[in-house]
Design brief:
Blueprint (H helix, E strand, L loop, with lengths): L6 H8 L13 H15 L8 E5 L5 H8 L3 E6 L2 H13 L5 E5 L2 H7 L4 E7 L8 H11 E12 L3 H14 L16 H10 L2 E12 L4 E5 L5 E8 L2
Helix pairs in contact: 2-3, 5-6
Bound molecules: S-adenosyl-L-homocysteine.
The site of S-adenosyl-L-homocysteine (SAH) has 21 residues, from helix 1 and helix 3.
Length: 234
């Protein structure tokens, strides 16, 4: 097993497991942005019938939605409680072609290299000790010419103000203590790390929030939260 995990992060997310699918609850932001990430992913490939792994899947918000769009989806996470929640939810919604496994991404990459048409890893890199190791494992999991998608928070003062001060404390959109500024990753750092393991940046988009309408949208502003698409170069 890898040591590339903060036990307190797994505990933090796992302790809120039963709230995961409450669309107005602690994780409402993940529910709100989910259609946007699905839209972005589908701009890069036709996903139906493809095999994908969702790394750091939590309770399966993205994994299950992918499966419902015809993807043969595997969700992995190190939180036992969240894997349980994800499995139960898939049973309730009778979602076929979704599976979950509690396994480290580095281990899965050793076991099943070059096995997936695309890999997603959303809002997870900022919660691990070594994000580079996760990026490398995602690169190893995907087939040649396959796609890897990451979303994370940008290490910019604006992200500190909006993603931590506003979202956690003022608007209380996400639980207090969810994020730590120093773990945020600049797009330039992510693309450099990815390039070193054979992933070439194809596109990047910002997830913007309008506090007046309380809506998220995709846009040019990558200063706070962003999604990036990479292709594995043979
Ligand atoms: N990707 C999901 C959940 C994001 S929350 C979504 O966007 O909907 C962050 C998730 O990362 C939590 O489920 C947490 O358990 C998981 N996580 C944190 N460190 C991890 C690690 N080292 N390996 C796998 N999952 C991890």
């Amino acid at each position: 097993m890898t040591d590339n995990v903060h036990a307190h992060e797994i505990h933090k997310f796992g302790s809120m497991a039963e709230l995961w699918w409450d669309k107005q609850g602690e994780f409402k932001t993940l529910h709100a942005v989910n259609p946007l990430r699905l839209k972005f992913i589908q701009e890069y490939l036709s996903i139906a019938g493809k095999r994908a792994v969702d790394v750091g899947c939590g309770g399966g918000i993205l994994t299950e939605a992918l499966a419902q769009l015809g993807v043969n989806a595997l969700g992995i996470d190190l939180s036992h409680d969240l894997i349980d929640v994800a499995e139960l939810h898939a049973l309730e919604t009778e979602t076929a072609s979704v599976n979950y496994q509690k396994i480290a991404v580095e281990k899965l990459a050793e076991e099943q290299p070059e096995s997936f048409d695309f890999v997603t890893c959303m809002e997870m890199l900022e919660h691990v000790p070594d994000a580079g190791s996760i990026v490398a494992a995602c690169a190893k999991l995907v087939k040649s010419d396959g796609m890897v998608f990451f979303s994370t928070l940008n290490r910019k003062p604006k992200a500190f103000l909006l993603a931590i001060v506003a979202a956690e404390y003022v608007l209380q959109m996400v639980p207090k203590g969810t994020h730590e500024y120093k773990t945020f990753i600049k797009p330039s750092e992510l693309s450099q790390t990815a390039r070193a393991v054979g992933l070439e940046l194809q596109g990047i988009i910002g997830i913007e929030y309008n506090p007046l309408t309380q809506h998220f949208s995709l846009g040019k502003d990558v200063d706070v939260n962003y999604i990036a698409a990479f292709k594995k170069i043979a």
